[in-house]
Amino acid sequence: MKEGKREEEVREYERGEIKRVRRIVKGIIMVMMVVVMGCNSGGVGGVEGKVNLEAKNSFLESLVAIGEGFQEIFGVFGNTVGDVLGFSVVKSGDKKSKVGEHFEKVKKGLEDTNKKLKELSGDISGAKNADVSTVETIKGVIKGVSDVFEGLIGALTKLSEVINDSAADVGDNADAVPSAAEKIGVESIIKNVEVITGIAKKSGVEIVTGNAGNQIAAAANATDAIAVLGGHTEKASQGAGSKLADEVSKADPWAMIDKIKNAKASDGAALKAGNHDAGILSASNNKADAGAGAKSNADLAAAVALKAMTKSGKFSASANDSGAVRAAGVSAVNKVLGVLDFIIKRTVESNLERVREAVKGVKYSNSVEFEAKQSDATQSTVTK
């Protein structure tokens, strides 16, 4: 039920974004119409009028090309990135490398968008009879936005490189003690999630901490949820898998992202007594000491995501619980990817909005008219 509600929220968001893009493009067209009306006002008689009209028409043609280029940027981003965004990136049975492939697809979409953005900068530089100062201002904005995209591309590149295990499934498990998620992989995920959220915040995107939920008490027996991560003095037994799935199901995705970016990667080790964060929980590799728990529901779910998608991470599960544990891993990973995708998409849109506002400021240069007047005046003097 919760999964269906979340997917409906995603669809509703995407419908809203389509309307938003249409409004942006319509705004550019409206600006052009205003410029057209302004440029066509006034007399057009004589040499000055002829130069006026030709120069302004050239300027308007440049504006149309700029508007088409801007619309193409939205099309590229929507076509190459829109199809891979959402809360259902991986499914049960997918290899961990599927997560890396997802980051690679989003990265490729951003690269294509950034390429088009740079082409737009070239179009603006070549705009005929445009005021130089306004052109330079727009180019400066585009350069800043391109730098933002480069930052996102860099983080996505590193994520795609580190999450590349094509041998193990997402949510891999065995009827044994767990295996730790590879430290270097967890470190990279933590660092680059922090990079992405940091870039987003600077772009005006709100990054909420979410509701972390209640503390997960130390396992009283091997059927408790945390036993799947090695949180009990014995390997997990039947019943622990479904309890873990319940914990992941109710976890707030935003809180999971917050826990990941604030976690610390750890070398593989059995859990000690006390309540642990996502980083330490994901590194559990044996039966725990008595009294090992999680700081919150979000820490537990975030640890499930880290262990489920990172190389060498494996859960403890009885044979009858294997499917439930795998499903919990898939759900946790999709929650993390869904929020990251949302953050990236909003960051891109926020920055393209900056470009749109800047493009609205392009102005016609009066230098051509001034030169025409000077030429006409010189010719009149010579004739006399």
From TrEMBL:
The chain crosses the membrane at residues 21-38. This is Variable large protein. It is found in: Cell outer membrane. The gene is vlp-b. The Vlp and Vsp proteins are antigenically distinct proteins, only one vlp or vsp gene is transcriptionally active at any one time. Switching between these genes is a mechanism of host immune response evasion. Pfam families: Lipoprotein_2 (PF00921). GO terms for cellular component: cell outer membrane. Keywords: Cell outer membrane, Lipoprotein, Membrane, Palmitate, Plasmid, Signal, Transmembrane, Transmembrane helix. The keyword Mitochondrion does not apply. Its main location: membrane. It is a lipid-anchor. InterPro entries: Borrelia_lipo. It comes from Borrelia duttonii (strain Ly). SUPFAM superfamilies: Variable surface antigen VlsE. It comes from the Bacteria.
